[in-house]
Amino acid sequence: MKKNTVLILSLCVFSLAFAFSADAEEAVPQEPVKVETKVKTTGDEKAETPVTKLEDLTNSMMDGLDEEQLKQFAAIRLAHGVLRSVKEVQSSVGRAVTACVEENPTLKDSMETRFRSWKSAIRPVLKKGEDRVAKMIILQDYAKPSEVRSYLTSFDEAIAYREKNIEKKPVTEKASCEAMLEKMDETQERLLDLMKESLGLDQPLTKSEKTE
Q1: More confident call, 179 vs 16
Q2: Which residue from 1, 197, 199 is spatially nearest to 209, judged by alpha carbons?
Q3: Per DSSP, what are the bridge partners of residue 35?
Q4: Within a 13 Å sphere around the CA of 20, how many CA atoms are in the beta-carbon half?
Q5: What is the pTM of this model?
Q6: What is the distance of C-alpha 192 from the center of its chain?
Q7: Which terminus of the chain faces fewer neighbouring Cβ atoms within 10 Å, N or C?
Q8: What integer pLDDT is reported at residue 207 of this predicted model?
C-alpha cells in the first residue's frame, strides 16, 4: 500500500442508485467495493478541500506503520465505510418512500409499513456493526482512539464533499415505486449480508483478529 494512495470506498454509489432510479435493484453490490485512487493536488486543485485534507491525514497516519498496522487501518476504514453506506441507503430509501406516498397515496400503507419493518431488521445489525468498529478502534495499536475517530470524521466529510453536486431525485412513478417495494425484501437481505460478511459480525473480535 503506497503512502500517497487514498483508498476511496465507493459503497455510497449503492445508496445513490437505490431508490433514485427505476433500475435501483441492479445497483445493490454483492460485496464491499474498495477502489484505490491516487489523488493529485496540482494546478487548480491546490486549494485544500475535504478530499485533499483526507489524503494528507491518510499519508500522515500510514507513515511508519508496519504491515499488520496497515491491515488494521484498512480494516477499520472499510468497516466504517460499509456502515456509512448502509446508513445512507436507509436515508435514501426513506426519502424515496416519502416521495412515493406523496405522489401515490394508495401506496401509503403498504410502503410505510414495509419500510418500518425494513428498518427494524437493519437497525440491530447496524448497531452490532457500530459496536464492533468501536472495539476495533480501541484494539488497534497504530494511533490514539481519538485520532482514529477524528480521521473517520474526515473520511465522512470527504465522501460528503464528493457527493454534494450529485442530484438526488427520488423516483415517484407508481410503477417504479411498486418495483422498489417489491425489491425491499431482497435489498434488506443484501444489506444484512453485506454487514455480516464484510464486518465479520458472526465471528468474535479479538486483538489478533483486527484484520478480519
Answers
A1: 179
A2: 199
A3: 8
A4: 16
A5: 0.75
A6: 13
A7: N
A8: 54
Mean pLDDT along residues 171-197: 89
CA dist 143 and 58 (Å) reads 12
- Helices H, strands E: what count in the chain? 6, 2
- Give the C-alpha separation, 67 to 211, whole Å: 11
β-sheet bridge partners, residue 38: 5
User: How far apart are alpha carbons 72 and 40 in whole angstroms?
Assistant: 25
Angle at 138 between CA 132 and CA 140, to 5 degrees: 100
CA angle in degrees (0–180, nearest 5) for 138-144-148: 75
Q: How many CB atoms lie within 10 A of CB 102?
A: 11
Is the distance from CB of 25 to CB of 31 less than 8 angstroms? no
Instruction: Give pLDDT tens digits for 72-124.
Output: 999 999 999 999 999 988 998 999 999 999 999 999 999 999 999 999 999 99
Please give the full DSSP string across 145-196, using - where no structure is assigned: HHHHHHHHHHHHHHHHHHHTTS-------HHHHHHHHHHHHHHHHHHHHHHH
Distance in angstroms (rounded) separating the CA atoms of residues 154 and 189? 30
What number is the average pLDDT over the span 15-22?
42
The answer to whether 31 touches 198, Cβ cutoff 8 Å, is yes
Q: What average pLDDT does range 165-172 have in this prediction?
A: 79
Report how far residue 178's alpha carbon sits from residue 172's, in angstroms, rounded to the nearest whole number. Answer: 10
What stretch of H or E contains 206? Answer: none
